[in-house]
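Listing S7. Sequence submitted for prediction.
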Amino acid sequence: MLGVFQLRLLVIVTGLFLAPIAIAEGQSVDVENTAYWLCKNKKNVRTIRVHIGKDGICHTWYSKEGIEKSVGYGKNQESCLSILENIKTNLEKSNWSCRDITSTRISSFSSQD
């Protein structure tokens, strides 16, 4: 029979093992992006996207140098799209080339080594 210490340790280890699985499953059912733009300037790449969560709140996300940050949110999707458009316009004024990749889908594949 397990002692109190062993039982607590088992609960902690089980929780550490299952937590990443629960997080990954939660992300897989998330709402899709409603707008997604890819901007390039020479070898530099930035992305801007609007995402609406399950709670109906929209978030505008901006990635720069591989780091993505929320730059605005709201209940009105138009406000998030306006933030995206402002960022895109500013980038294009600075000679960045932006294109809409909203309809792009990523699928898994297996390599045939």
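Caption to Listing S7: primary sequence and predicted structure tokens for the chain studied. The radius of gyration is 20 Å. Strands lie at 33-41, 44-52, 58-64, 67-74, 97-100.
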